[in-house]
Amino acid sequence: MTPLDFSPVVTDRLLIRPLTPADVDAVHAYQGDPEVCRYLPFDARDRSTVAARIAEWSERRRVAAEGDYLQLGVERREDGALLGDVYFALRSERHELAAVGWVFAPVSRGRGYATEAARALLGLAFDRMRLHRVMAELDPRNTASAAVCARLGMREEARFVEDFRTRGEWADTANWAILDREWAVRAG
Hints:
alpha+beta, eight-stranded mixed sheet, single chain
């Protein structure tokens, strides 16, 4: 495993970069929306919570030890609009395992931005860090995120039934994953 000192990533349409205090209103617009947060592990956030989170996230630039993570903004290169954010965490050094996740503003959905951004995270994991496995955990009712996983070449490996309580109800967790050798074939 190679530690990652993050620098912004440019894709065809996106700039994946650290979030800054200037992003608070844009992030709050979607992370403060109960419908956006419906399948996320947190409730809709107020503006001050978003500001505090971004202050914490903006300091994180290195992934080298178990528990290190990045929460990054996804900006459309064409106009600089912040579309959403992505998550990248080292879950296990020993097992060379990372986890990824994403949340996007409703107006930016359905255009492939989440897939493009998540693909860039897989590139960080496999091409730069030389990890063995990347996983995503999601509520299986979130069919849009499951579709992103499938487009990335991930497979659903497990489904835990009613394994956590959220918003007063029991929910399931689906675990999706891809291995380095599978990524190498897809990235070709």
